[in-house]
Structure formats: structure tokens, C-alpha cells
Write a structure and sequence with these properties.
Layout (H helix, E strand, L loop, with lengths): L3 H15 L3 H6 L2 H19 L1 H7 L4 H34 L7 H6 L8 H31 L28 H12 L9 E7 L6 H9 L10 E7 L4 H13 L8 H12 L5 E7 L4 H7 L10 E7 L2 H6 L4 E4 L5 H12 L11 H12 L3 H11 L4 H9 L12 H10 L3 H9 L9 E2 H10 L12 H14 L4 E2 L6 E3 L2 H11 L3 E3 L8 H8 L2 E5 L3 E2 L15 E5 L8 E2 L1 H7 L8 E3 L20 E3 L20 E3 L21 E3 L21 E2 L1 E3 L20 E6 L7 H5 L9 E7 L10 H10 L8 E5 L20 E5 L18 E5 L6 E2 L1 H4 L12 E5 L6 E2 L13 E5 L17 E13 L8 E11 L11 E10 L4 H7 L4 E5 L5 H9 L9 E5 L18 E5 L23 E5 L7 E2 L9 E5 L6 E4 L4 H4 L17 E5 L6 E3 L10 E5 L19 E5 L19 E5 L19 E5 L18 E5 L19 E5 L18 E4 L5 H6 L10 E5 L7 E2 ...
């Protein structure tokens, strides 16, 4: 359904454009102007009947069709106006610039004679104007025939009923919110003289604002307010009506007064001297004057009175002067489910359906924390029989617009209250799929490109207007900030559904499934297209849009950081050139190496995103896209040049070339782009070939971030001055960068002069200087006039021998100094000679790679670094002097690779994280002033000074402690182990390279310790001293990991807490027994099967042993822990058995055995192992057989046996029927497959790479439900067709490793001449090692309509692909080590080229084929 208000907003924009503007008026003749005015009057008449049409379209298909015709006409009118604007711009550009004045430029648009192009354009436009006039006439006549009446705009809006009653049942999930609101109401702290304060509850529709307000209103804690009143205001903020409603609520009497003054006097008398609580529910008013008119009666109340309002718009509370706006967030999934149950089942004794898990998941997915959605869905399910629930879940009622009578009218009300200019902006967001995270700037640039941001003459820049639009929608709860990335935003699912509803069929997401003739309707109507880009996007994906002639938006939405995707060049060369009305085109993320010159024919294009492509250059025709506003070339790693006529893009406002690091320079005419606001990088090229830096000068509107790179190519300081950086006050961040590979011949003095002339505006917030070669910095760096500077970076300025006085910058928060190899001392010059309180705002200070730095001379006053929170000093090898003595706010200290530094940790009262990895000495001279870090790392410290009580007190509260190379940390190590049990807050302990560690103290482990990791501690012999048992009191150790501890021979069971769940031991070369039951095992042993009722049960679940060459047994008793669920054993060559009893723990779920060469069997029997889900056995040469009752493992889902040379046969009873994955590889003595293979009806993946003497009969055949089949045996090729390969209707992936000498065609023919057919369902096909294969059979491939990937390896004689070509569904073709076929495909003149040119991804010997093809030859071959 197309909303009348959306169409009305669209028409309003057209009215603005129908007012003739200066340039277009020169193109139009006077007669055309009159026609435009007639159009305007006609559209106004149409707009007046939209309300009536909107209501009638629900029952009258002709009216619905009439509305669709208006929408199409509106789009066509916009296209027509844009055609005129483009023609005007082209004539402006082509006019001879005899004079530089604007007047002469305008006059040049009036042709003095008829040129062929002008005549052609005029004839075309005349034809289009007549068509529009005819359509308008038909629409007007049809309006009259349909009997549509003038009704203005729609006023039939849902309004919330006014009630203070709390809904049925307890309010779920809002108890904390209730407490916080009541706390705000009862807070008596006065910040002004007002007798009342306003508290607003803000949130999106359906989040429960009114319910929460009712809960608070009826709470006993606010009963002392008297009087209390509640009214629902909704969208109609009439001061008289609101005042009268409040009076009636206060007095509980009807009011018959007629004058506002009388009503307000009466209300004031009722409130006078009383502490009142008033609730204005569902408020929309943003008019301050109306609020002021409502206020007078409230001023009569007593101090402490409160007015509580609920609203969807933050701005409403601001207008009312709310002292507090409470943003109401979504509720939890558990609370959502509880609300659903409350309203679906209530108190009825109804059982839950068997698929309640699926229902639970779908309900929560639909609600997304919105209480009203949960309530509405609960009402939808209420009263239904259990067998009806699944029908509802699968029906079209599951769309939110049909979910019930409550939620969608509320959402529509939010949309109704949007201003006209926001309605279309919001509708555009329907292109985003659910959960899609978008950035503010990204969306604004798209709105601009689509003409949704109308900029009146002399108004703010479009970007600023767009920012206001965005923030308005955000404040109205249409957008929410992403929980995972604060710079991104999302829409709630129901808001996303609302956007689709109001957008109608003009907006189309390609992944949307259409039924029946709906596809053809969308094909002729859609103007905006988006789709989720996949790894391979072939031409078949876009069949549904092949007739979208008027498409304006082609917007793939790529998942972040997934690598390259591939797009068929048919789309680029054939589909896109047809879309002449495109405003937005994105090919971002596709592995595209060139664009055709036809891109220049897309004259309407305003937004072009080619980021993350492999373009080497841009077509020259891009310079003719005069409408282009945004060009994104971010991370185009192969791009070297921009077109020479780039300066013709005089409407370009945003150019992002960040990460396109091969660009050698900017085109000569870049200074003509005076509309530019974003220029991510200005690459200074070498003279003559590229423009010089002075061309930055005219770009006065630059804002945001500007990086100027390759500054070594600036040879004259005056050119740098002419860049006029100091006048660009909208720049927030500037990066100045010289190349890192400069030779010593570079003039240091010139670099100083250049940097001096590049002084930016004092409003700058962030500055980075990289690879600067001067010996000192200019005086403007560190000047206090740069009061807005908050971030400063100096990187690899190796010749500078001193730091600039950046301590004088009053609001500097982050400072990074890296690679300053010439600096030897940091002192007064760093702080500022006359600065008494240096670095007064600095929070983060980072030094890195300063090899000559020796001294850090303190200022001598405590005011320095007063706010410093994080200090890092990395690889400053010669730094000797101590750190500053007084860092009162420091929370994190990181020292790494500073071998001569003495680190004092005194006077750090706020320290939370301490990381010292490589220094000369650590001191803590005082017990006062050392904080309580929760994380500490000590590594490679030459010595500890006197270990004071202060240091030990700090360690006592640590939660994470890591000690590395403690042989030299004698003092500390003597203190910590003996006092280890006193570290009451310690949760994780990591010890590495500590050869003196023999055991932990007899006192045991700290009570909160959960994880211990011990690595390369060669002296470790036991966890606790011999004969000591671990106390069970308060122990909660869950994970123990021991690596490369060669003195360890076993672990006494009595020394392991019963809480231990995970034990990992790796590369302990002398370990003989993992768990030794020795002395004391009776009181604290790990339990066996027989001891399951013993009072000291273990919780050990995960046992992982790897590369322990001496290991002979897992436990001294030969029995495994009964609670074990995961057992992983790898590379233990002396281990002969898993359990001496021949039984595995009943709880075992996962068993993985690799390279246990002496193991002959995994168990005698498995009748108790009903929990086993996965068995993997690899490279166990001694294994001969499997337990005979293997088939009884009812939960076994995966079984693999690889490279077991002695294994000869499967049990006679075969494998479990529920098995899903079966792998058999390289077991050379195995003679046959398991019996009953066809009975494995649950098997989905079968991998056989084994030469067998005996094959199953055709009657046994293959399991019928296979999804993936990998065959690697020459004997299997022909038999598997006899087994019914074609009947495997679920098979998606087939891989055949052949070595069949008699096969020259694939798939071939049987002996009776019948073709061997492959399953139609195949999506992935891989064939390899067919030594005599020469061709692929046409008949064998013609039925593979779902084939997406084809891989052909090591077929040396293969010369051709199927004669009729490959299936059109194919999106990936990989050819490897097929020399003859590669030759025919790799050359664009080869005989097979035309068969593969349309495939998005073709890799030949691991090279992307399109990288070797020229544009012209590609197009020629593609059109064969």
C-alpha cells in the first residue's frame, strides 16, 4: 500500500521544482513555462483528493492503480527536470570562456544558432513534455470518473485512549526503570527557582513509555502528590483542549467554560499551593509558544511539583525545559517471552506445542525487545489451538502490517508526524535489510544523490541539512545507535517494516521473494534497488530487474571485511549502461579491474562508490558526469591515476581516496573542484605530470579530514603557503606526510619551510605529522592558540632532535610520539618554557621506537600530567631516568622493551593495569600511593628493588597476573608464591619461563582462581609439594594448561580441585601419566565409573593431551573420569590404550585421536556410550578394528577414520543410522565400505578417498539424502552412476578425484549408450585427475541449472568446455593445471573465452582472469 502522505510529500518537492529557476528558464521557451504552470495547478488539484483516494484504494482497485500512476508520473517529472538541468550544465561547460564573469557564462547558454545537439535535445524534450501533458490529462480525467473528492490531507489518525489503568497482569521487565523514574520525581534538589520540573520519558513507538508512566503514576511512593492528573495529548496540542482536560482530570467534573483565560484561572485555583503530579501522555508538540501558553496555571502550585511527559521525540522534552530526559530502552529477550506468554496463554491451562523452541526463537526475533510487539503477537496466538500455531508462523500474517490492530497504527502515527522532507528520507531507508548497520554520512550522501535534501538558495550546505534530517529521525526513535559500533545505526525490525510499507513498490530489495505476477509489477514500477552482495553475483541473480528501465538506485550492501566479491561483467557492460536514470551506483567490494567508457553515459549519476575494487584507472568518460556529487575510491589498492579532465566534475563534493596508496598524484585541474567538501587525501605528485599543492587553495569548503601525502614533491615553500590551509576552518583533522623511503639528499631546510607554511587553522582538532625530515619543528606546532587540538601524532620524524612544546596546548588529550630516532632528552622544551601547568588535559601519552632517548627530565611541579590516564613506553632501549614522580590519575602503565629503564610504581594511586615487559629495575619505595591494579604483567625484568608492603598490597587485589622469565625476579617470586593463597581476587594466573618454579605453595590456590597457565617452566615437578593435597574449601579452579614443562612426570589427582573442568597438557616430554592416583587419592580423587556416588565427585569434562612423547597411560588406575565429555589425544606415540577397562566414560561426547601409533583399539565395547556425537581417528597405524557395537551409538553424528594403515574392516553391523558425516581416507588395508550404506538415511556428507577391493552392489547404492559427496578412487567413478547418483535430489556438492584412464568425456556414457547424468540439485562440482579427459559433455551439463561453482584440476588433456556453454547459474570457475584448457581460456582470442566471459569469478592457475584482459577485447568477445 502506498501511503497518501508519502505521495503528498513527493508532490510537494515537485511543486518546488516547478518554480522556474534561472538556468532552466534559459532553456525553456515561454510556451513551456506556461505549460509548467498548468502542470503545477493540475498537481495541486490532484493533491487535494489524495485523502479520499487513500481511503478508497483499500476497496477499489482502480483507485489503487490511479495512485500508482501518479507516483510514476512524479518520478518521470523529476527525471525530466534533471534532463533539463544536465543540458544546462553541459552547455555551460562547453561555452567558450570569453569572459570570466558569471553573467557571460549564463548568456553563453542561449544558443545563437541551432547546433545539431541543441536541435536533437529540443525535439526530444518536446516529445517528453507532450507525453507528460497527455498523462496528466488522463490522470485528471480518471480522477473525475472515479469520483474522488477534495478532502485535503488525511486527518484520520489513530489516537491513544486516555487511561491511567495498568494493563492486565503484572508489568514485566520495567521494575528498574520504574525505580529510576520515581527517584527522579522524588529528587528535591533544586537547580532553579521553578516550583515544578518536567521529566520526559523518551523512546520509540511500542517500547512501553505509557505503561511505565502508568506504573509510576499508580505507585504508592507518589501518592503524596495531590492533586494528580493524567491526560493523553497525542498529536492535537490545542492549548484550550489540553487545559480543559487537565482541569476535568483534577476536579473529576466536566468543564463548560468557553474562554481559555477562565479555564486557566480555574485550574490555577485548583493547583494553588498544592504539590501536584501531572502526566501528559503521548506528546508531540515542538512549538515553544504553545507550551508557554499552557504554563501559567502550573506556576500556582507548590514547590516540588512534577510534570511527567511521554514522547517519541527528544526535542519535545527540550522545548518543555525537561530537567531530565529518560531514554527508555528495549527489554530483554526473557522479558519479551514472558509478555508473549502472558498474553497468549494467560491463566488458561493450555499446554505448549512441541515446537516451542522454534516459536520462542521466531517470537524473539520478531519482537527485538519491543513490549508492544510481544503483547500483539501474544494476542494473535491467544485462543488458537496448538496445531494452528505453526500455520500462523508460516502465514502472511507474520508481516508486521497485519499482526494486529495495535502496533501498526502506532507506528504509522510516528510516520504521520514527520515533516514532508523527512517522509521520503525515511522511505529511502527501506532499502536497508533488517539489522543492517549504516553510518550517518553514508545515508546523508545517498539522500543527497537522490535529491531528497532540497537546498534553497543561500541555505545551509546539503550535508548540514542532511545532518539535521538524520538527527531528527534519530531523536524521533526511527534510528537507534548500534550496540556493537557507536558510529553506526540500525532500525528496529518493526521500523524497517514500516519503511517498506510507506515506500511501496518503488523501493525493491532484490532478496525479497515475490510471488506470481507481483514480480512483473515490480519490474515495471521499481525505481530504487538494493541487494545484499554475495561472494559471487552472476547475471542470473539480476534477471528480475532486467526490465527496470527507470532504476535510480543500484545499491549492493556488502558485509564488512569479507574479502573480495565477484560480479558478472555482463552486469557492468550490458545492464548498467541501460539504466540511464541512475543517481546512485555502487560496485564497492567487487573485484573489478576496469569500467567501460559507457559509464559516462549515466548523466544523472550523483553517487558512485568504487571502493575496495581493483581498478587500475578510471575511464576518461567519468569526467563528463557533471552531476556527480560523491565519488568513493577508498582502498582501491591498484589505482594509480585519476582521469586528466577530472576538474570538469564541478559539482563533486566528496572524493574519498583513503587507502588508495598507489596514486602517484592529483590531476592538474583538481583546483577547479571548488564544491569539494571531502578530500581524504591530496597526493602531491611530481611536477608537470600532476598538480602542485597550491591547487588546494581554491578548495575553501573542505571539511572533516585531509591527508596531504608525498610532501617531498613540494620544492617551493610558497606553493605550500598558497594551499591556504590556515583559512580552511572546517577541517577537523589534518595529516601531513612525507614518504618513508626518502634519501639523505632531501633538503631539511626546505622541509622545515614547507611545514611552516602548512600551518592549519587554529580550530583544528587533530594533527598528524609523518616522516618529516627537518631537524626541528616550526613554532606554530605547540602554540597555545591551537586551543581546540585534542589529538597530536608525530611518527618517524627521525631527524628531529627535540620535541615541540606541546605541553602548552590546553585541551590536548591524546599524544603519540613514535620513531623519533634523533631525540635524546625530553625536558622543559617539551612542556613549554613558560607553561606552569603543562599537559593539563592530557589523558593518553604514548612513546614508541625512540632508540636514542636517554633522559626524561621532570618539570619539578606536580601540576604536570594531572589528568594522564594511560602511559605507554615501547622499545625505548636507552631510556635511563625514572618516569615522572606524580601521576595521580594514571590507570594504565605499559613498559615494553626499555632495558635500561628503572620503573617506579610509587605515587600511582589510581593504577588499574600494570604491564612491564622488559626493563632494568622495578621499584616501589613507598607503601603509600600505589593503587590496586586488577591486571599485572611482569616480564623480563633484570631485578626488583625493595619489595615494599605497598607493592604487595597492590598485588593482593589483582585479578589477572602474568609472570614471565622470573629467574631474575627472585625477590618478587619469593614473596608471591608463598603468599599466593592470599591473592583473594585472583582469577587468572599465567607463568612462563620460570625455571625455579618446582611447585605451588602447600597452602594451595587462591579461592577465586579459575584459570592457570604454565609454560616453559623446566623445574616444575608437581602442582603442590609432594604429599600435599588440595583443600576443597573455596577452590574454584576450572582450567589448567601446562605447556613445555619437561620435569613434570604426572599430576597427583589429590592436588586437583574437584571444580576443575578443563585440563590441557602439551609438549611435556617426560610426562608418563596424566593423573596419578598416588597417596591421598581416596579423599580427593578423580572419580571412575564405579565411584559415581562417591562424595568427592570431579567435574573434569575436557582433557586435551598433545605431543607428550613419554606418555604411556592417561591415569595410573587405567580408568578415565566418568564426567569426561571431550577427549583429545595427539602425537603420543607410546600410549597403548585409552582405558585399561576397555570402556569409555558414559558422558563422553567428543573423541579425537591423532598419531597414537601403538593404539590398537579405542574400546572393547561402547554399549554405555550413548552420548558420543563425534569420533575422529587420524594416523593411528596400529588401529586394527572398531568396537562391534559401534552401530548402537544413537547420537553419533560424525565419524572419520583417516590414514590408519592397519585398519581392515568395519563392524559387521555397520554404522549408526543417525550418522550425518562419514569420512574414510587412505586406510590401505581396508577392503570394503561399511555394510548397509543405503540405510544411512541421515547421512549428509560422505567422503571416501580409499582404494577398495570390494564395492557395494547397485542395490545397496548410496545413501539417499546426501548433500555432499567426495569420491577419490578410480573404481568409484562408473559404479556411482549405477548406484543412482542422479536420484540424489539433495546433493549440492560433488567432488570426483578420478585417475580413470578410459574416460575422455565427462560425464560419459554407460556401456549401453545411456548418458551418465548428474543430479539437477548440484551447486558445486569438482573434477580432478582425469588423465585422458578431453572435453566436458554438453548433455551432462545442460540440466545443472543450480550449478554455482565448477572446479577442474589436473586434467592435462582437457581442451574444451561444453559446446553450448556452461550453465548460466555458474558464478565461479576455477581451472588449475589444465594447460590446454587454460590456453584456450586465458587468451581473449581463445575459442573458449566467450563461454566464460560472463562468469563473475574465473581463476586460472590461481590468477583472476579479467586482470589480463583489455577493455575493448573483452567487450568484443562478450558480444559474440
Amino acid at each position: 500500500m502506498l501511503s497518501e502522505v508519502f505521495l503528498g510529500a513527493f508532490l510537494q518537492v515537485l511543486f518546488d521544482r516547478l518554480a522556474p529557476r534561472e538556468l532552466i528558464s534559459l532553456v525553456f521557451r515561454e510556451s513551456v513555462k506556461k505549460k509548467l504552470e498548468k502542470w503545477r495547478q493540475t498537481l495541486l488539484a490532484i493533491q487535494m483528493v489524495l485523502k479520499d483516494a487513500e481511503e478508497k484504494q483499500l476497496t477499489d482497485a482502480d483507485v489503487k492503480q490511479w495512485l500508482e500512476a501518479i507516483r510514476d508520473l512524479a518520478y518521470d517529472l523529476e527525471d525530466l527536470f534533471d534532463d533539463f538541468a544536465i543540458e544546462a550544465m553541459q552547455r555551460k561547460w562547453k561555452a567558450e570562456p570569453e569572459s570570466g564573469s558569471p553573467a557571460s557564462m549564463v548568456r553563453s547558454l542561449v544558443p545563437t544558432r541551432f547546433t545539431p545537439s541543441a536541435v536533437k535535445f529540443n525535439l526530444k524534450m518536446k516529445f517528453e513534455i507532450e507525453k507528460i501533458s497527455k498523462r496528466l490529462k488522463e490522470i485528471t480525467e480518471q480522477k473525475d470518473r472515479l469520483g474522488l473528492k477534495d478532502g485535503g490531507m488525511s486527518v484520520k489518525i489513530w489516537k491513544r485512549p486516555s487511561s491511567t489503568s495498568v494493563p492486565y497482569g503484572p508489568v514485566i521487565g520495567r521494575d528498574e526503570d520504574r525505580k529510576k523514574i520515581i527517584e527522579l520525581i522524588l529528587n528535591d534538589e533544586q537547580t532553579d527557582d521553578a516550583n515544578f520540573h518536567v521529566i520526559s520519558i523518551v523512546g520509540m513507538a511500542g517500547v512501553g513509555k505509557t505503561t511505565l508512566a502508568r506504573l509510576v503514576y499508580n505507585d504508592e511512593e507518589v501518592n503524596h502528590f495531590n492533586p494528580r492528573a493524567w491526560i493523553c495529548v497525542s498529536d492535537d496540542f490545542d492549548v484550550m483542549m489540553v487545559t480543559k482536560a487537565l482541569l476535568e482530570s483534577v476536579t473529576s467534573q466536566p468543564c463548560h467554560l468557553k474562554e481559555l483565560n477562565e479555564v486557566q484561572v480555574k485550574l490555577a485555583s485548583e493547583l494553588e499551593g498544592k504539590k501536584f503530579l501531572l502526566v501528559l501522555d503521548d506528546l508531540w508538540n515542538e512549538n515553544y509558544d504553545l507550551w508557554e501558553a499552557l504554563l501559567p496555571p502550573f506556576r500556582a502550585g507548590a514547590a516540588g511539583s512534577r510534570i511527567m511527559v511521554t514522547t517519541r521525540n527528544v526535542s519535545v522534552g527540550k522545548v518543555m525545559g525537561a530537567v531530565q530526559s529518560y531514554n527508555l530502552d528495549f527489554i530483554s529477550d526473557n522479558d519479551c517471552w514472558a509478555i508473549f506468554v502472558q498474553h497468549s496463554l494467560m491463566n488458561e491451562n493450555v499446554g505448549r506445542p512441541g515446537n516451542s523452541g522454534l516459536i520462542h526463537e521466531k517470537i524473539l526475533e520478531r519482537c527485538r525487545g519491543l513490549p508492544l510487539a510481544a503483547r500483539t503477537l501474544g494476542g494473535l496466538f491467544r485462543g488458537k489451538e496448538l496445531d494452528e500455531w505453526e500455520d500462523i508462523m508460516n502465514s502472511r500474517l507474520w508481516s508486521s502490517s497485519n499482526m494486529g490492530s495495535d502496533i501498526f497504527p502506532i507506528l504509522r502515527l510516528s510516520y504521520h508526524h514527520l515533516p514532508h522532507h523527512l517522509k521520503r528520507c525515511f522511505a529511502y531507508c527501506s532499502l536497508f535489510p533488517r539489522d543492517y548497520e549504516f553510518e550517518e554520512k553514508q545515508l546523508i550522501l545517498l539522500w543527497m544523490a537522490e535529491g531528497l535534501i532540497y537546498q534553497a538558495e543561500g541555505d545551509k550546505p546539503m550535508e548540514d541539512l542532511g545532518g539535521e534530517y538524520f538527527r531528527d529521525l534519530l531523536s524521533r526513535s526511527f534510528f537507534q545507535q548500534s550496540s556493537s559500533n557507536k558510529s553506526r545505526f540500525v532500525m528496529h525490525d518493526l521500523i524497517s517494516d514500516l519503511a517498506q510499507w510507506v515506500a511501496g513498490i518503488s523501493y525493491f530489495r532484490l532478496e525479497t521473494k515475490l510471488e506470481g505476477n507481483e514480480r512483473s509489477k515490480v519490474s515495471s514500477k521499481a525505481r530504487h534497488l538494493s541487494f545484499v552482495g554475495s561472494r559471487y553475483d552472476g547475471a542470473k541473480k539480476f534477471e528480475a530487474i532486467s526490465e527496470f528501465k527507470h532504476l535510480r538506485t543500484f545499491l549492493p550492501l556488502m558485509a564488512p571485511y569479507v574479502g573480495y566479491s565477484y560480479l558478472s561483467y555482463l552486469i557492468i557492460n550490458q545492464l548498467l549502461p541501460k539504466l540511464q536514470n541512475l543517481r546512485v551506483l555502487s560496485l564497492s567490494g567487487y573485484r573489478i579491474v576496469y569500467l567501460p567508457e559507457t559509464i559516462g553515459d549515466l548523466k544523472h549519476l550523483r553517487y558512485l562508490d568504487l571502493s575496495r575494487t581493483q581498478l587500475r584507472s578510471l575511464p576518461a568518460s567519468i569526467s563528463t558526469l557533471y552531476n556527480l556529487q560523491t565519488l568513493l575510491l577508498e582502498n582501491c589498492s591498484s589505482l594509480k591515476f585519476l582521469p586528466p579532465d577530472f576538474g570538469k566534475l564541478f559539482n563533486l563534493r566528496h572524493l574519498n581516496i583513503f587507502g588508495s596508496n598507489l596514486l602517484e598524484g592529483m590531476p592538474l585541474s583538481i583546483g577547479n573542484l571548488t564544491s569539494l567538501q571531502t578530500l581524504s587525501n591530496f597526493v602531491v605528485g611530481k611536477a608537470d605530470s600532476f598538480c602542485v599543492i597550491r591547487e588546494l587553495g581554491p578548495l575553501v569548503h573542505l571539511r572533516g579530514t585531509l591527508c596531504i601525502s608525498k610532501l617531498e614533491n613540494v620544492t617551493k615553500a610558497q606553493e605550500a603557503r598558497d594551499s591556504y590551509l590556515y583559512g580552511k576552518q572546517d577541517l577537523n583533522e589534518v595529516v601531513m606526510e612525507w614518504s618513508s623511503n626518502l634519501n639523505e639528499s632531501q633538503d631539511e631546510e626546505t622541509q622545515l619551510e614547507v611545514l611552516n607554511m602548512l600551518q592549519p587553522n587554529v580550530k583544528l582538532k587533530e594533527l598528524t605529522v609523518k616522516c618529516y625530515g627537518g631537524t626541528k619543528f616550526p613554532t606554530w606546532i605547540g602554540d597555545p592558540s591551537f586551543s581546540n587540538l585534542v589529538l597530536l601524532r608525530f611518527e618517524n620524524c627521525e631527524n628531529c632532535n627535540s620535541l615541540p612544546p606541546v605541553g602548552q596546548l590546553p585541551f590536548l588529550k591524546d599524544l603519540l610520539i613514535k620513531g623519533m630516532a634523533g631525540v635524546k632528552s625530553v625536558g622543559r622544551e617539551f612542556y613549554g618554557e613558560s607553561c606552569s601547568r603543562p599537559f593539563q588535559s592530557l589523558e593518553t601519552l604514548h612513546f614508541e621506537d625512540m632508540p636514542r632517548w636517554e633522559n626524561w627530565i621532570p618539570l619539578g611541579v606536580n601540576e604536570a600530567f594531572a589528568c594522564l590516564r594511560k602511559l605507554s613506553i615501547i622499545r625505548c632501549h636507552n631510556l635511563v631516568r625514572k618516569l615522572p614522580d606524580h601521576l595521580p590519575s594514571l590507570k594504565k602503565l605499559v613498559i615494553h622493551g626499555c632495558w635500561n629503564l628503572v620503573v617506579s610504581v610509587s605515587n600511582l594511586p589510581m593504577l588499574c593495569v600494570l604491564v612491564i615487559e622488559g626493563c632494568k629495575r622495578v621499584e616501589c619505595e613507598s607503601s603509600v600511593g600505589f593503587g590496586s591494579p586488577y591486571s599485572m604483567v611482569f616480564s623480563k625484568i633484570s631485578e626488583f628493588g625493595h619489595v615494599t608492603a605497598g607493592l604487595m598490597h597492590g598485588v593482593s587485589k589483582v585479578e589477572y597476573l602474568k609472570i614471565v622469565d622470573s629467574e631474575k625476579l627472585t625477590t618478587l617470586w619469593e614473596k608471591i608464591p608463598k603468599g599466593l593463597h592470599r591473592l583473594k581476587f585472583l582469577r587468572e594466573l599465567s607463568i612462563e619461563d620460570c625455571p625455579t618454579l618446582v611447585s605451588f605453595p602447600a597452602s594451595g590456590f587462591p579461592s577465586m582462581l579459575k584459570v592457570i597457565q604454565i609454560k616453559s617452566c623446566s623445574g616444575l615437578k608437581s602442582l603442590l609439594p609432594e604429599g600435599t593435597l588440595q583443600s576443597r574449601e573455596n577452590a574454584c579452579l576450572e582450567r589448567l594448561c601446562v605447556v613445555r614443562c619437561d620435569s613434570l612426570k604426572s599430576i597427583a589427582r589429590g592436588q586437583l580441585p574437584t571444580t576443575l573442568k578443563r585440563l590441557e597438557i602439551s609438549h611435556c616430554m617426560n610426562l608418563q601419566c596424566v593423573l596419578d592416583e598416588g597417596e591421598g587419592s581416596s579423599s580427593s580423587s578423580v572419580m571412575h565409573d564405579e565411584d559415581i556416588n562417591n562424595r568427592s565427585k570431579t567435574h573434569l569434562q575436557y582433557l586435551d593431551i598433545k605431543s607428550c612423547q613419554s606418555l604411556t597411560t592417561l591415569t595410573s588406575s587405567g580408568k578415565l573420569p566418568a564426567t569426561l565429555t571431550h577427549l583429545l589425544l595427539r602425537d603420543c606415540p607410546k600410549l597403548m590404550y585409552l582405558s585399561s577397562t576397555g570402556k569409555l566414560p558414559a558422558a563422553l561426547q567428543y573423541l579425537e585421536i591423532q598419531s597414537i601409533s601403538k593404539l590398537q583399539k579405542i574400546a572393547e565395547r561402547l554399549q554405555q556410550n550413548t552420548s558420543l556425537e563425534c569420533i575422529k581417528i587420524w594416523n593411528c597405524h596400529g588401529l586394527k578394528s572398531l568396537p562391534e557395537d559401534l552401530h548402537n551409538l544413537s547420537k553419533l553424528r560424525q565419524f572419520q577414520i583417516f590414514w590408519c594403515q592397519s585398519f581392515s574392516s568395519f563392524p559387521a553391523a555397520g554404522l549408526p543410522s543417525n550418522l550425518r558425516v562419514l569420512g574414510i581416507k587412505n586406510c590401505k588395508n581396508l577392503k570394503a565400505l561399511p555394510n548397509g550404506m543405503r540405510n544411512l538415511t541421515s547421512l549428509q556428507k560422505l567422503d571416501i578417498s580409499n582404494r577398495l577391493d570390494s564395492l557395494p552392489s547397485p542395490q545397496e547404492g548410496l545413501p539417499t539424502n546426501l548433500i555432499e559427496l567426495n569420491m577419490n578412487d578410480l573404481k568409484f567413478y562408473k559404479p556411482m552412476f549405477e548406484w543412482g547418483l542422479q536420484q540424489l535430489t539433495s546433493l549440492i556438492k560433488l567432488s570426483i578425484h578420478g585417475e580413470c584412464l578410459d574416460v575422455d568425456s565427462f560425464p560419459g556414457e554407460r556401456e549401453n549408450g545411456v548418458m551418465m547424468l548428474l543430479p539437477n540439485s548440484l551447486s558445486i562440482l569438482c573434477i580432478s585427475y582425469f588423465k585422458n579427459l578431453e572435453c566436458l559433455s554438453p548433455k551432462g551439463f545442460q540440466n545443472l541449472t543450480s550449478l554455482n561453482q565448477l572446479k577442474i584440476y589436473n586434467c592435462l588433456k582437457l581442451t574444451s568446455l561444453p559446446k553450448e556453454g556452461l550453465p548460466p547459474s555458474l558464478t565461479q570457475l576455477e581451472i588449475r593445471n589444465c594447460p590446454l584448457l587454460s590456453q584456450h581460456c586465458n587468451n581473449e582470442k581463445g575459442q573458449e573465452w566467450s563461454k566464460i566471459a560472463h562468469i563473475p569469478c574465473v581463476l586460472i592457475d590461481n590468477k583472476f582472469i579479467h586482470e589480463t584482459v583489455t577493455t575493448d577485447s573483452f567487450t568484443t568477445q562478450l558480444n559474440r
